[in-house]
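Margin note: ligand = guanosine-5'-diphosphate.
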Amino acid sequence: MTVSGSSVPGMPSMDLLRFATAGSVDDGKSTLIGRLLLDSKSIFEDQMEAVEKTSQSRGYDYTDLALLTDGLRSEREQGITIDVAYRYFATPRRKFIIADTPGHVQYTRNMVTGASTADLGLVLVDARQGLTEQSRRHAVILSLLRVPHLVLAVNKMDLVDYSRDVFEQIQSDFKAFATKLTIPDLTVVPLSALKGDNVVNRSEQMTWYSGQSLLHHLENVHVASDRDLVDTRFPVQYVVRPKSDDYHDYRGYAGRVAGGVLKPGDEVQVLPSGFSTTIKGIDAFDTEIDEAYPPMSVTVRLADDLDVSRGDMICRPQNAPKPSQDIDAMICWMSNEPLRPRQKLAIKHTTRTGRAMVKDIQYRLDVNTLHRDQDTKQLDLNEIGRVHLRTTVPLLCDPYSKNRSTGSFILIDEATGVTVGAGMINAGS
Amino acid sequence: MTTHADYRLSQLDELEAESIHIFREVAAEFEKPVLMFSGGKDSIVMMRLAEKAFFPAKIPFPVLQVDTGYDFPEVIETRDRWVGRLGVRLIIASVEKAISDGIVVDDGKTSRNRLQIGTLLHVIEEEGFTAAFGGGRRDEEKARAKERVYSHRDEFGQWDPKMQRPELWSLYNGRIREGEHMRVFPLSNWTELDIWHYIGAEQIEIPSIYFAHQRRVFERDGMLLSESDNVSIKPTETVEERTVRFRTVGDMTLTGCVQSTASTTAEIIEEIAASRVTERGATRGDDRFSEAAMEDRKREGYF
Ligand SMILES: Nc1nc2c(ncn2[C@@H]2O[C@H](COP(=O)(O)OP(=O)(O)O)[C@@H](O)[C@H]2O)c(=O)[nH]1
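Resulting structure:
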């Protein structure tokens, strides 16, 4: 490990944290993100000038930090943000990618998208309102998407006189609700995005709070152990065959490690054929490396000449996913046209694509109450439900709870080509 | 590769792994991809990543440059060395030729960067490219923050912000219909600083104009522009020699430079870390006309 003495943000040796933000309209999410960007000096002079000008022309008596993250024109005209926007900032400790998912109509779809790649979910609530139906929904989605770390940010503490009681009530309400969910790591922070309390520095207004500031937590939360380093999964993405004089017999299987640690000499099995062989070498560009682990992109060479192609998966002989054509999954539906039994769709899982038919819809999950509606005949836009699919090709799948790469898939409308569903595979598929 | 004791990748290695994954995914799923080479550092970093993605095989797609006729000679030299070393096919689509063929109209008011749009869309259609890699980054501009890695373009090459597909996990949806194509942005999650750190770490050759050099320049609309055969100096403007560097490269008549003595990547990184103006804000004449300029050009099919 190289330790760098420099304090330039974004140094090559530091690691990356991806987090998704969620909050209802006006909870202060844009203000909070604006403040994180501003205080980490990720805002440039020309951007700040533009925001100050707009704030003035709108007659605000303070600079509206929320404008910093304001996006497309149609959205600006409507005064709202739609969709997921990605923001970047870095401190001398870490680089951060924020998936900013604003809350309203298309909400579930956007939040599922933003949460799919997140290591951490940040849920904002307004201290004056406490937990709302929407905050519960945000937590449910983060839990369904198996985002390993959750931060509940109780914002606008300045408007409740920085009251410890208010904070503790919200905290205990949330903890009671969270027992029904899968949230491996929960942190609750009282803050004021507008005034800056507990955002970067610990607040002097809330000496009763013994935890860290939000940024301190984001910089230090331990994410390395969230990845599966035990169960080897290497979906073959592309076959590298140079057909040149120098590399006449070279045949490498390129891909991104989805689980486990691969080493030269490892005994492996290739699915779905089931043939066994050993790893002859692992290449990262022009160097041979000793081990490969998630999320590295490498090229694996095998000892035997097997017929391996895109869509196959390299695993360990005693630890391989079960090929299955009957998939039991939670699906978030993202299209205006509802999902119905017998519907046919294209499916993409790891590097495999095929077709899938909806066999039945077991239930629709009410993301506010966790109630399971078993009488449902269809899934509408932004609804989540448990669905059985039959696929044309066997998928080499793991439960999503075990591996977010080999446990997830997308559904594509074959006529329009649009992504219409996101799936998370249940255990026992 | 900086690996940590606990199987953690450095952020730069993680970005590299993500970009390589994207290159391979496109090569595997699209019939006819092409890499759009703008001459700038971002597209050179793309070439480097593509080189790594397919090594020891050659990059399995050609490189396309839209030649404005006003390109910096230093950029052309660097391009030719890269293309020669990688052994890839280079396609040059000339704006001059597009004008003389009547594909785009030079009304004297439209910038060359803008005329590139029509020229580019014409080659994509003509050659039947189904995917075009671009060097855009989400940190460049507010309107880009919502751009997908795979950005769908309709049969007119247009971008419809309402029709963009949700992008989940790293499962990219590459479905297109006849006549449509996909813009693919493998550097989506890189920031300007990441690009420079990578150029430094990998010792990547980029055009010399990114580094401090002596140049005859004049001021126009608050920008420092280079003297060249293609610009006429107004009587109120004075040309003088200064020590400058470029933060972006493009149409020579519109791309401003900044006064700087940074002559190595390390010095540039220091300068950027301390600098207070975005790349585009500083130096791209064509982005300055309206706040939504970038978004308009994207709709029309700009890079
Ligand atoms: N007093 C106070 N106001 C806040 C705080 N955070 C945000 N606001 C205000 O709440 C309003 C909504 O904030 P905004 O960031 O636009 O909310 P968003 O819809 O969640 O993005 C704005 O007027 C903010 O200035 C806070 O911590 N304290």
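Residues A 23, 25-31, 66, 155-156, 158-159, 192-194 surround guanosine-5'-diphosphate (CB under 6 Å).
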